[in-house]
Specification:
The complex is a heterotrimer of chains A (about 375), B (about 300) and C (about 300). By secondary structure, chain A is of the alpha/beta class. Chain A has helices at about 1-30, 45-65, 85-100, 110-120, 150-165, 180-195, 210-220, 235-245, 260-265, 285-295, 305-325, 335-345, and strands spanning about 30-40, 75-80, 105, 125-130, 145, 170-175, 195-205, 225-230, 250, 275, 345-350, 355, 365, 365-375, 375-384. Chain C is an all-alpha fold and about 300 residues long. The radius of gyration of chain C is 19 Å and the shape is globular. Classes of the chains: A alpha/beta (about 375), B mainly alpha (about 300), C mainly alpha (about 300).
Chain lengths: ~375, ~300, ~300
């Protein structure tokens, strides 16, 4: 009699243990849903990259604190690209073959372009967040952007100048690199189509420190608005020299100049400068809270605020698609992610509002036009 | 398009902005001439000079002249380190020229990385504002930066000229430049002269970088880009020809700026390489200036024998 | 795994670059840092010819190599006629100037880079084949440089390095030899570039600038100048080590510029403490005792 009880008790204990083990390992196997983030953590672009990473980390923490994806934790695998295409390829390879993620977020146009073949060959989705080269829409089936590409904000500012501000003669001054050349062409085309005339169209060398020749040419053409398409490193000097040479007409530029340092560097000469932003500013409560959190926890505002907003929202997109796949009990592969993301199409995101991912791998977003008034950036208009 | 006002404006502003290039070119050309070293590490000297000034003025709020003193000190200290621990050691080992060049390249990169680590890569200026008020002279805009800049450049050239022509150390530098071994035979301490050259270059670099950093933004890698112009001016102006280098720096600046009036603006940057190419292929000895002859003729052996025996 | 293959291929390509650069600056005694531009020419030429002009890939790669060869002769011949130092200046100017052209011309994809380069092997061929090919090419390159250095050509180069005046006095043409060495090394670099283009399928001008020059330079100097296996060791170390470090999960703020500092610092240390590099060159052709002592200093 006793002998028959032992096996039963032992069997019960063993069975209990077995099932406990199953649920524990089962839970551990489903514990985290992984996705990748490939950003410049070192090198020249790290000052932007690190802030963008912090924003993404905050988002992942917020998502997990709110219960994760159907109770499972979202895990972000972070790798350094140094904004270098080759390092980007290594990072992508590692995310794909070692970490085996179905989707990863990347940034910086050269890196996104270099990684595209890896994404396509391995059927892993690449979400480009922040890079704005127009080519990104044509990098194959598995590269999507969640950030508007170059034409969106430039078209908005060109249209606004021609229609709302009533400007008829625009001068375009652009830096002679990929960003500058493409964007300048877009401005010219859009401004002309809106009824204006581009009276001067001058390039300048990225290494230049003196723009007298180009500026004099622009001055001679007598424009009523000047659009500068440069980098954060040179645009303030261009504007300074412009004002010194007696060009008092309004200046417009794009998101690169939208930072408080410009006002500090130019003083009164910054008055009236118009810049674009692709994300809502502190007029939006969520954004105001976000900026306040930066001030409290880090002691400053983030570098490239709008970009960090998009990076904050990226994990939400990933989480939403993961949730949809999990609800449908589909495996988390790149192919499924892509299909589900395209099917979902529209996402409501905390810091950048509604996002619609188009069939042709582009997105449309409202453009916020900001102007320097009385030494501060204020919102001038919103263009849909 | 080519009105007097426009030409005058371009000439004036290019002349003013060429001030820092003249200083950089002179520093590079001097070290090349006397030490026979392709001092790419000058970019490192430029970077430390800028960030020393930036730290004092922008970060600690000290007045401008303190910033300049800091720039001078930093650049001189680095020059001493490079010369004593770098060049001297390599010279003693009779290292291949390629080693010397690699050394200077690596030093520039190390300093750039250190600057990135400490200061980040956001572009910065010495003074918080880079806007300088303008007065109109005739129809030409003259900014408050222009006059001091031109003044510094012109006086530096004059002082350097006087230094090389009239002071003992300066004359020794010219002697060593011509023939180091012969100069040594006459009792000139070669090593000390090499150090003196680096120190002179350091002063020029500090001046130039202070000027640049009060008008334009600087990142850790900016100096490496600026070096290209200095090197081009030195090559086109004639290696060994200081005043040729200085003049070329001015001319190149003016030509680059006025070129937009004649050629499509996209080709402006390419112009520099075109001149470099022409200079390398067709003018290997650079543009000849008569002044050079006069300078060498002055420093003849008899003067040195008397001076040298008291010196060593 | 894709990741490991990419690392191995990069190591292989850098072995070719380091070995050919060693040929130029080590055995040839020439002063140049423009090696990456010939790598770039090979990559771009092969990419453009195969994508936009429909060349079959092997032919495009060959064409890329030849164009790199011709370009290097065009740079070396006029400069070496002036002096050895002049080659340095000319090659830097050529490198930076050509990068400007790549950045501005539309047919090179401009500053954004050249995308969608056709892959060398169709998708059905396993990746391992490409890896094997590159490994073989790397080994052959190292052995080729060794063969040259140990052969009569190498002996002549050593003589030229030791005393160029005597060399010329013996009736040998120093300029021709230098140009030939430069051309051979640069052609090898172009060949490696073509391989790069068709594996990674994207090239951008910024990948071939002075920073890249110092990477290859470091490999040769730290690995051991004028030794056969030095550049190989240098290439493996300088490609594998950074990758290995990333697995250590150091905080990114530390990792960043520290990596750059680490490797430039390494070069400085090696230059002053152990100038012969990790693999010291046994002097292949030591004439007199005086000559070999001089060489070993």
């Amino acid at each position: 009699m006793m002998t028959t009880r032992f096996p039963t008790r032992r069997a019960l204990i063993a069975a209990a243990g077995f099932f406990a083990g199953l649920t524990i390992t089962g839970a551990m196997a489903q514990e985290t849903l992984k996705f990748g983030l490939a950003m410049p953590l070192s090198g020249g672009q790290a000052l932007y990259g690190q802030d963008q990473v912090k924003a993404a980390e905050w988002a992942v923490a917020a998502i997990n604190a709110a219960g994760g994806v159907n109770g499972k934790k979202l895990e972000m695998v972070l790798l350094d690209t140094r904004a270098d295409p080759q390092a980007g390829i290594q990072a992508a390879n590692r995310l794909v073959s070692v970490e085996k993620v179905p989707v990863f977020v990347s940034a910086w146009s050269a890196v996104v372009k270099a990684i595209a073949p890896v994404a396509n060959d391995n059927k892993v989705v690449q979400l480009s967040v922040g890079a704005n080269s127009a080519d990104i829409a044509r990098l194959g089936d598995y590269t999507y952007t969640t950030f508007p590409l170059a034409d969106v904000d430039i078209s908005a500012v060109a249209n606004h100048a021609a229609t709302k501000l009533g400007k008829k003669r625009a001068a375009v001054l652009y830096i002679n690199n990929e960003t500058g050349v493409v964007a300048a062409q877009i401005y010219r085309d859009v401004f002309s189509k809106a009824g204006g005339q581009v009276v001067a169209y001058e390039a300048y060398d990225p290494k230049a420190s003196d723009w007298t020749g180009s500026l004099l040419k622009v001055r001679a053409a007598n424009p009523d608005i000047i659009h500068i398409q440069g980098l954060v490193a040179d645009t303030p000097q261009v504007i300074a020299q412009m004002r010194q040479l007696g060009l008092t007409v309004p200046v417009s530029s794009y998101s690169a100049v939208y930072n408080p340092k410009l006002i500090e560097q130019l003083g009164k000469a910054a008055e009236g400068v118009i810049a674009t932003s692709l994300a809502p500013g502190v007029e939006d409560k969520a954004v105001a809270d976000y900026v306040e959190r930066w001030r409290k926890e880090v002691g400053r505002e983030p570098n490239g605020l709008p970009y960090t907003q998009y990076l904050y929202d990226a994990p939400y997109i990933v989480a939403a698609v993961f949730k949809a796949l999990d609800d449908k009990k589909l495996p988390l592969t790149g192919e499924n992610f892509r299909r589900e993301m395209v099917a979902t199409k529209t996402f409501d995101l905390p810091l950048t509002g509604r996002l619609t991912i188009n069939e042709n791998h582009t997105v449309n977003k409202p453009v916020f036009l900001m102007e320097v008034k009385n030494g501060k950036w204020v919102q001038l208009a919103v263009v849909e | 398009m080519l009105s007097f006002d426009i030409v005058a404006q371009i000439l004036w502003t290019s002349f003013a902005t060429s001030s820092y290039f003249v200083l950089f070119a002179l520093a590079f050309a001097l070290v090349l001439k006397v030490n026979r070293a392709f001092n790419f590490a000058q970019a490192a000297m430029m970077t430390v000079a800028f960030y020393a000034a930036y730290t004092c003025v922008a970060l600690w709020g000290l007045p401008g002249w303190v910033g300049f003193a800091a720039a001078l000190a930093a650049s001189i200290i680095l020059a001493i380190v490079i010369e004593v621990f770098g060049f001297r050691t390599l010279r003693r080992r009779r290292a291949d020229q390629i080693f010397v060049f690699i050394f200077t390249l690596i030093v520039s990169e190390v300093v750039a990385f250190l600057a990135m680590l400490v200061f980040g890569t956001w572009p910065s200026t010495i003074f918080p504002s880079l806007f300088w008020p303008v007065t109109l002279v005739g129809n030409v805009a003259v900014s408050q930066w222009d006059i001091p800049a031109v003044g510094v450049a012109v006086s530096s050239v004059v002082v350097l000229f006087g230094f090389l022509r009239f002071t003992r150390t300066g004359q020794f530098m010219v002697a060593v430049a011509d023939n180091p071994d012969l100069a040594e035979l006459y009792g000139i301490a070669k090593q000390r002269i090499y150090l003196a050259t680096m120190l002179t270059a350091a002063v020029l670099v500090a001046l130039g970088m202070f000027l640049y950093g009060t008008r334009a933004q600087v990142q850790p890698t900016t100096a490496i880009d600026l070096m290209l112009f200095a090197i081009a001016a030195t090559i086109i102006g004639g290696i060994g020809n200081l005043w040729g280098a200085a003049l070329t720096a001015v001319v190149l600046g003016v030509v680059q700026n006025s070129s937009v009036l004649f050629i499509p603006s996209e080709w402006q940057g390419f112009l520099l390489y075109l001149f470099l190419f022409v200079a390398i292929v067709f003018l290997p000895n650079g543009v000849k200036l008569p002044a050079r002859r006069r300078l060498t003729r002055k420093t003849v052996a008899p003067d040195l024998v008397g001076a040298g025996s008291q010196e060593s | 795994m894709e990741y490991v293959y990419a690392v191995v291929i990069l190591i292989g390509l850098y072995i070719v670059l380091a070995a050919s650069f060693n040929l130029i600056i080590g055995y040839g005694g020439l002063i140049s840092i423009a090696h990456p531009i010939f790598y770039a020419i090979g990559a771009y030429a092969s990419a453009i010819l195969s994508r936009d002009y429909g060349f079959p890939i092997p032919l495009a790669m060959l064409a890329g190599t030849l164009i790199a060869l011709v370009a290097s002769i065009m740079v070396a011949l006029p400069s070496l006629r002036v002096s050895g130092d002049y080659l340095l200046i000319a090659s830097i100017g050529f490198q930076l100037g050509l990068i400007e052209v790549f950045k501005n011309a539309s047919w090179t994809g401009g500053a954004g880079g050249f995308t969608n380069i056709p892959a060398a092997l169709s998708a059905s061929v396993p990746r391992e084949v490409y890896v094997a090919i590159v490994v073989v090419v790397a080994a052959l390159a190292a052995l080729l440089v060794r063969a040259i250095a140990h052969g009569p050509y190498g002996r002549a180069m050593a003589a030229m390095r030791d005393d160029e005046v005597a060399f010329s006095a013996l009736g040998r043409n120093a300029v021709a030899m230098k140009v030939g060495t430069f051309a051979l090394g640069s052609a090898l670099a172009g060949f490696a570039g073509a391989f790069y283009a068709h594996y990674f399928r994207f090239v951008a001008p910024e990948q071939f600038d002075i920073l890249q020059s110092s990477v290859v330079l470091t490999m040769v100097v730290v690995g051991g100048i004028r030794s056969t296996w030095g550049p190989v060791v240098g290439a493996v170390l300088l490609q594998a080590l950074p990758q290995a470090i990333t697995f250590l999960n150091l905080p990114p703020a530390v990792l960043g510029p520290l990596q750059g500092l680490l490797f430039t610092g390494l070069v400085l240390v090696f230059m002053f403490v152990r100038p012969q590099g990790l693999v010291s060159a046994g002097e292949v052709w030591s004439a007199t005792r005086k000559g070999s002592e001089h060489a070993r200093s």
